[in-house]
Design a protein that fits this description.
Blueprint (H helix, E strand, L loop, with lengths): L1 H10 L1 H61 L8 H12 L5 E10 L2 E13 L1 H13 L4 E10 L7 E12 L1
Antiparallel strand pairs: 1-2, 2-4, 3-4
Helix pairs in contact: 3-4
Amino acid sequence: MKTLAGKIIFFDKTISVLAVTMIIALIFTVMSFIYAGNMERKNRGLKTRLTAVQSLSRQVIQIKTVVESKEKKTGMRKSTGVVSALEQILKSLGLEAKEIKPLGKMKAGEFTEENAELEIQDVDLNSIVNLLYKIDISPLPMKIKSAAINSTFEDPDRFILKLTVSLLSRG
């Protein structure tokens, strides 16, 4: 009986081909599961790297926006001059200056500081605050170096404002 079973298993070509095919299918299935596990681990690693890169890209975009606004503020573009900038601000507020006189330019490294003196007479406190605010939020990089506010003798609610304003620009 043993010899008959051995003869059937080892010598029957159909059964031996079927057995080899099953062994190859079993090996292929095991290797597929191993490969799929490796791919899942790589996929998880890549997903974590992708989320890290996306968060960094959002930070880079935010930093880029801040840098662009600072570049505009520091005058990376050509500026018209401190006198004309002050005239535009005064015009937008409906104020008239008694005098605006340029005081000259000073070079500090790669930047140029252009100074001007502004005098406005018979102005109320609200207009002074609005003017100072407009100078502060101006797209041009302007700063107030000195300010003097004196009240008038005729009306204590009206003032004489003297400012020294400087404009920073590249070059």
